[in-house]
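Sequence, please.
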């Protein structure tokens, strides 16, 4: 009788643990999607500023001066020397120049339609020349994002940073609770869920903005708008500085994304291991 009661109690505990695992698995996937979206928005914000689509405060004046058209630029005063002689008309210089076909019968038939400026470039070039294609290709992103200023982008970066920290922290805690439920209910897959938890823990540690606490000595993957302005305003041609620049804002984000993918893969294997152990599949 006692064995039957203990067996039914173990079955009830296993059923409760399975229900808890289903809840944790759903929230884990939700926080994973939110974290991926936040990482994508963070990288998009960096590349928008890096490519010059949105000008940082230190580059606003230079960009505005470079985008002035020739019609908008102030005209330079014409310096005319008063002692220069006036040019003589063409008839006075060459009086015997033929002016029509009757005076010169050996001219070609289409001499009157000949454009003297045919060899000169036309003012309306469109997309015919290589330089015009480059100008349109460079001007298109800035025109596409002309309504977005750096103030709006800074608000977006701060919002994404806050949401990214919350989602990554809740993702790590969800894996921790899943580990505890698996150990308590002896559901199996402890190896996979333990690895997923430690990967998410490393992800969270690398993600936090430690530069706000320790200064520039230690930096996290999350960057502030002020830090982005400070790095983008530097003008350097040193290869090492460029490598550190892209590793700071791009390579760090790629590392966080890879850790997140590995943790998610391990958690998926954990769920499959539970189902195999209970002979559900």
């Amino acid at each position: 009788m006692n064995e039957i009661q203990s067996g039914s109690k173990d079955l009830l505990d296993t059923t409760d643990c399975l229900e808890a695992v289903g809840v944790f698995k759903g929230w884990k996937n939700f926080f994973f999607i939110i974290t991926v979206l936040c990482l994508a928005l963070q990288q998009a914000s960096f590349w928008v500023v890096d490519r010059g689509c949105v000008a940082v405060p230190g580059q606003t004046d230079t960009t505005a001066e470079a985008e002035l058209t020739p019609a908008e630029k102030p005209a330079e005063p014409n310096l005319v020397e008063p002692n220069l002689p006036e040019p003589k008309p063409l008839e006075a210089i060459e009086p015997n120049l033929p002016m029509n076909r009757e005076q010169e019968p050996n001219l070609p038939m289409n001499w009157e339609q000949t454009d003297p400026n045919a060899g000169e470039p036309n003012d309306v070039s469109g997309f015919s020349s290589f330089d015009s294609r480059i100008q349109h290709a460079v001007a298109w992103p800035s025109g596409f994002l002309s309504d977005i200023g750096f103030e709006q982008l800074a608000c977006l970066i701060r919002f994404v940073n806050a949401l990214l920290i919350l989602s990554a922290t809740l993702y790590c805690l969800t894996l921790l609770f899943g580990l505890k439920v698996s150990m308590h209910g002896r559901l199996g897959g402890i190896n996979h869920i333990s690895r997923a938890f430690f990967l998410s823990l490393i992800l969270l540690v690398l993600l936090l903005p430690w530069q706000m606490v320790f200064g520039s000595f230690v930096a996290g993957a999350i960057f502030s708008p002020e830090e982005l302005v400070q790095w983008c305003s530097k003008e350097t041609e040193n290869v090492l500085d460029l490598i550190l620049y892209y590793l700071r804002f791009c390579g760090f984000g790629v590392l966080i994304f890879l850790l997140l993918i590995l943790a998610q893969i391990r958690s998926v294997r954990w769920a499959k291991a539970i189902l195999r152990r209970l002979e559900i599949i």
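Confidence is low (pLDDT under 50) at residues 60-71, 97-104, 110-143.
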